[in-house]
Amino acid sequence: MSCKMGMEQKSEWNAAQSIKISEDLVAAAKLQLQFLAAVDRNRWLYEDQTLQWAIYRYNSCWLPLLAKHSESPVTKGPLVVPLDCEWVWHCHRLNPVRYKSD
Description:
The protein is mainly α. It has helices at 2-16, 25-41, 48-71, 83-93, 96-101. Helix 3 (48-71) crosses helix 4.
């Protein structure tokens, strides 16, 4: 059984080696760290009432705007998500199964 598991893992490893990554992962990681530092500097994002308001804005404003923009762009450039909505969005994506179903 352990030999089979080893073969499966090796097969998965070999398949993963052929995945082409088109993003600069170092730059993406640096942006993620900057975002998390911004959240940490804005402790009000953790407060109950503020967090509830951010969740409301995320659900009622940001997600509909993002969906509309995905269908036909509402601006020429990229959308810029407000920090409170970005924080909720970040947390939402930490549960990918729920995020996909939502």
